Amino acid sequence: MRRLFVALGISGLVLAVLSPQPALSTGARLTxxxxxxxxxxxxxxxxxxxKGKVYVGGRFTTVRPPGxxxxxxxxxxxxxxxxxxxxxxxxxxxxxELDGFVWAVVASPDGSRVYVGGDFxxxxxxxxxxxxxFDTATGRLVANxxxxxxxxxxxxxxxxxxxxxxxxFEQVNGVTRNRVAAISxxxxxxxxxxxxxxxxxYAIDVADDNSKVYVGGTFSTLRGTDHWAVASVNTSTGAALxxxxxxxxxxxxxxxxxxxxxxxxxGSRVFFADAGDGWGCFDGTWAAxxxxxxxxxxxxxxxxxxxxxxxxxxxFKGSHAHxxxxxxxxxxxxxxxxxxxxxxxxxxxxxxxxxxxPPTLVGPLVAVSGGSDLWIGGDFTEINGVGQEGxxxxxxxxxxxxxxxxxxxxxxxxxxxxxxxxxxxxLDNDDIRLTYRLLRGRTNTVVAATTVSSSFWYRPSITLxxxxxxxxxxxxxxxxxxxxxxxxxxxxxxxxxx
Length: 498
Prior knowledge:
Blueprint: E1 6-10, E2 13-17, E3 39-40, E4 44-50, E5 53-58, E6 62-64, E7 75-76, E8 80-84, E9 102-107, E10 113-118, E11 122-123, E12 126-127, E13 131-135, E14 153-159, E15 162-167, E16 171-172, E17 175-176, E18 180-184, E19 201-206, E20 213-217, E21 221-222, E22 225-226, E23 230-233, E24 240-241, E25 257-266, E26 269-277, E27 285-289, E28 295-299, E29 305-311, E30 314-321, E31 335-340, E32 364-368, E33 374-378, E34 382-383, E35 386-387, E36 391-394, E37 410-415, E38 418-424, E39 433-440, E40 445-453, E41 461-466, E42 474-482, E43 487-489, E44 493-496
Antiparallel strand pairs: 1-2, 3-6, 4-5, 5-8, 6-7, 9-10, 10-13, 11-12, 14-15, 15-18, 16-17, 19-20, 20-23, 21-22, 23-24, 25-26, 26-27, 27-28, 29-30, 30-31, 32-33, 33-36, 34-35, 37-38, 38-41, 39-40, 39-42, 42-43, 42-44
């Protein structure tokens, strides 16, 4: 709660089966062309949107304008900054000095506050042990939000008047709270909520109806009872609730340790991101029903998944996916930015890309949406092959990406008045269904047309036929591709018509 496809049913479980040919015919509302955004000089680890601003936390110590190379035009921002959500411009007023990394950022439901968690112990010289809050109207610290957390805070979530947080700590205000705790957002007081995890908590979120809290990480028990990597717990006490979908995360063994890295709740569904150690270890996403706790689908793409966000009806995932069953395999390379159908887990029509930089080499690590935009932070240094470090954003403004220019077609004429033109399907990073037209002569007369699905992992051959070519003449043909906004035309090829 951070503000097509073939389904195979097995014992109440719905698995997303991704066919080689994409089934979605609609374009993604997000364009695949990144909007101008400031950059950071190191990783972004936390993001939140509030009152028209995007709050950004991480390992960085400076930020710089769009297009500026590393080391140039830098402005000091120690681990926390804010930007205008609409323009991407730096918010000069949000300028605080923290003495340690920020690992998590979350906004209150009304946008009046932003909470940050991390490694810091001071903010502007004032004691703030790993957790602090800022008033978004003034940019100032909130005085009564100052719990004494003994070690790193890595995850934050808000449910009604409670701020839930997880990490690596063992005490809050001198009271034992192993890796998870909650305080009142009204008074700042420590709450009784106590799931008591035996190892680190990486992710936490609250169901939209406030019926339960989800926690994820590397723990194996809560309150001494077995719960590997994920659990659903009571919002008041922290006691574990029935959650059969937890079986989606395999139990660890000598060759595989899979853990939950992010959680995103949205209405009646909750989504989880996993990363695994070991080749073939579960690295994908999965979804559960909030009311019943049952597993809805499980997507088995390899390549650690670190970030989830719901944007305009789609589930975004940031990962370094390199092998997805029934879709792309290792030969199609690593893809860091993808959309999934939240009902099935199948991949959607949006294929921009990033890269993976140090220290994680994963690339995208966190994401947030203000409704119709998508902000992404992480370790990347490039977006769509262009330099962009740490932070980027995508919007629904503009016509989006254009299809790749098709090559000149391969032509043949084996029957009177007929010419066959064959070309490999084009690729468009925010449209799956493209229209292909066969153009004859220098007047570009349309003589045939078809609409075909394609994606970066599936680009079939397309054959268009001119059935009325002038017999006994030499004709020139080219292919035109249309995505609803852009028209691109390839080069000519010639053939003698029978």
